[in-house]
Specification:
single chain; 638 residues; Leu-rich_rpt; Leu-rich_rpt_Cys-con_subtyp; repeat; 29 strands; flat; disordered C terminus; 29-stranded mixed sheet
Length: 638
């Protein structure tokens, strides 16, 4: 049974108590539930999840009789100050508790849960010690992420030699980890954003089974000598540490490594140490200061599949990558590689994704033409002039060429498999967009936001599979809207800040349309009547359409759930038709100064959750509607 955003009455809770065969219950954001007495009779219940609830320990105590429980999740229960009532559930295998006010005293009884295998205590504002875990000799996984546990409080972990997975990420008070030498079964360790130092981690040599280690954002980590001897280590995260070239030599001996992140290691200039790492699959060098000559050892990592050189500001030439025949993803964004320096990437025959954003010295994509496996190209904010190389293999499915100010045309681009094209903020013209869309009949998503040189959209009428069209700040007219209306498969349409649009009645043929945004256009009340036939519409934004005085025609949209009318000139009589939108959950009337009376409307809409009348002339408005289930933001104009 899953209940989400459901007001729980006494009748419903009585019904729950009679569902004795229930084995799994999930309750998410359901107001009205203060006690779990209704679940105490469910003797077959094995899994319980309470998310975003106002439950207290007193209310939780009723499940202490549910001896069949094996898995409990209590997330974001901010009134919870203790979980000692769970101490009697000796059959519990998994316990996950996060974001609450539980203190050290509130977890004392966890020591009784001798069969517990997984324990997650995340984001406890007042937790400083984990002493109760001493008795949990079957515990294999312990997650203490984002807590105030201290070095003294962690000392008890020395008696948990059976633990295989331990997370102490963002535990800012942790610096002394001498207890770690006792965790000889450890396979996973996360100490990211703690105050551990390289010297403190030397005891990791006792953890010979360690496979994954995270010490990201630990400023005290200045060298990686602590990994020496960890022959099983396959995943190493040194992101944002103070490691220097001299401190990387021990990594050479970790030949089992398949993942290595040195992202934002600002003192790193040389990666000679990667040469022996022949099993490496994923390498992140983003934000380091490596130079052309020092990345040559990468050619020996022939199994490499993912490589990020993002924002390596001293890189101009990556031709050494030609040996990486298994490479699938390459990120060169923000580097200064040139046309010549990137030319040999054409030999990376397995490449599926490449990011060239902000590579301002690359002017063409001819080097991509031979890449028959290429699927995704990101080339935002470039000075590219010729993009025809994108269509060389005919395999590309997703392309983003946003904010390329020098690109007015895409030439004779052939991309028969292209599904997603973003030209946002580019200088492409009417003829340029017409030329490219003629050859992209498979296109499903098109982003033309802020393409101010485009004045008409006749070309989109030739796209039989288009499901999403995003247009913003363009000089298109009602005539272009009529062309858009021919795309019968459209599900999401955005035409924002197109001030010359006054009539969208032609959109009445878009029967699959689910989401429509016409905000800050010049549509009139008569110009939206046709929308009443878009029967599947669930979300409609007409905010900032100052010529709108009434929207009663929208009452035909029985599936509408979200409607934005802020900063329009609609009046009380102009919204009365919305009473028929029985599924409406969100109604925004912000700064609609002609609105004075909304009581009748709000009483007709049983599903209304958010009702914003801020800046209207509504008087004597209540902040809360009904019995506290729905919220209304009100402003009284005096």
């Amino acid at each position: 049974l899953t209940l989400c955003n459901t007001p729980l009455s006494e009748v419903m809770m009585l019904y729950l108590s009679e569902c004795v065969s229930l084995e799994r219950v999930v309750v998410n954001s359901c107001r009205g539930l203060r006690s779990l007495e209704c679940l105490s009779s469910l003797q077959r219940l094995t899994e319980l999840s309470l998310l975003n609830m106002g439950i207290t320990e007193e209310g939780l105590a009723f499940i202490s009789s549910c001896n069949s429980l094996r898995h409990i999740q209590l997330d974001n229960c901010m009134k919870l100050q203790g979980i000692n009532c769970l101490g009697s559930l000796i059959g519990l295998r998994t316990l996950s508790v996060s974001r609450n006010r539980v203190s050290d005293d509130g977890i004392r009884s966890l020591s009784n849960l001798r069969n517990l295998e997984q324990l997650r205590l995340v984001s406890f504002n007042r937790l400083s010690s984990v002493e109760p875990v001493l008795c949990l000799d079957k515990l294999l996984e312990l997650d203490l992420t984002e807590n105030w546990v201290t070095d003294e409080g962690c000392a008890a972990l020395a008696n948990c030699g059976q633990i295989q997975k331990l997370k102490l990420a963002s535990c800012r008070c942790v610096s002394d980890v001498r207890w770690i030498c006792a965790l000889t079964s450890l396979r996973f360790l996360d100490l990211s954003k703690t105050h551990v130092r390289s010297a403190d981690l030397q005891l990791l040599t006792m953890c010979q089974r360690l496979e994954e280690l995270h010490v990201a954002s630990c400023s005290g980590v200045k060298d990686a000598s602590f990994v020496e001897g960890l022959l099983s280590l396959g995943h190493l995260d040194l992101t944002d540490t103070s490691i220097k070239d001299a401190g990387t030599q021990s990594i050479r001996k970790c030949t089992a490594l398949t993942f290595l992140s040195l992202q934002d290691c600002r003192f790193l200039t040389d990666i000679q140490f990667v040469e022996p790492l022949r099993n490496l699959l994923n390498l992140n060098l983003e934000g380091t200061e490596v130079v052309d000559a020092n990345i040559i050892p990468l050619m020996h990592c022939t199994k490499l599949e993912v490589l990020s050189l993002r924002h390596c500001l001293f890189l101009t030439d990556v031709r050494c990558l030609r040996e990486l025949k298994a490479l699938k993803s390459l990120d060169l964004s923000g580097t200064y590689v040139t046309d010549e320096g990137v030319s040999d990437v054409s030999q990376c025959i397995s490449l599926e994704r490449i990011d060239l954003s902000e590579c301002c010295l690359i002017t063409h994509f001819e080097f991509l033409r031979p890449l028959t496996a290429l699927r995704h190209v990101i080339a935002d904010r470039m000075n590219v002039l010729d993009v025809t190389g994108l269509g060389g293999s005919g395999s590309v499915e997703r392309v983003s060429i946003a904010d390329c100010k020098r690109l007015g045309s895409m030439g004779m681009l052939e991309a028969p498999r292209l599904l997603d094209l973003s030209l946002k903020k580019s200088a492409i013209t009417d003829s340029g967009i017409h030329s490219v869309l003629l050859r992209c009949h498979s296109l499903r998503r098109l982003n033309l936001q802020n393409c101010t040189s485009i004045t008409e959209l006749s070309a989109v009428a030739q796209l039989p599979s288009l499901t999403e069209l995003l247009v913003r700040n363009m000089k298109i007219t009602n005539k272009s809207v009529a062309f858009v209306a021919r795309c019968a498969t459209l599900e999401k349409l955005q035409m924002v800040e197109c001030v010359e649009i006054t009539d969208v009645n032609s959109l009445k043929y878009l029967h699959r349309l689910v989401e429509l945004d016409l905000s800050r256009t010049s549509v009139t009340s008569g110009g939206i009547v046709g929308l009443a036939r878009c029967y599947n519409l669930k979300k409609l934004n007409l905010s900032g359409c100052r010529y709108l005085t009434e929207v009663n025609c929208l009452g035909e949209l029985r599936l509408l759930r979200e409607l934005h009318l802020g900063r329009t000139t609609v009046s009380d009589s102009g919204i009365v038709g919305l009473c028929r939108c029985m599924q409406l959950e969100t109604l925004i009337l912000t700064n609609c100064s002609q609105i004075r009376e909304v009581e009748k409307l709000q009483n007709c809409l049983p599903c209304l959750v958010k009702f914003d009348v801020y800046g209207t002339s509504v008087e004597d408005s209540r902040r809360y509607l009904g019995v506290g289930q729905r919220v209304q933001h009100a402003c009284v104009v005096l």
